[in-house]
Amino acid sequence: MIILHNLIMGYQGQGIGVPLDGRFASGSMTAIVGLNGSGKSTLLKTLAGLLSPIRGSLSFCNPGRPRIGYLPQQVDIDRQFPIKVYDVVAMGCWPIRGLLRRINLKQQVAIRQALTRVGLETLSYRAISTLSSGQFQRMLFARLLVQEAPLILLDEPFSGIDMPTFGLLMTVIAQLNRQGRTIIVVVHDNQLVARYFPQTLWLTPQSATWGPSEKVLASWPENYPTSLDPVAFSVCDHVPALV
Question: Is the pLDDT of residue 219 over 60?
Answer without folding.
Answer: yes
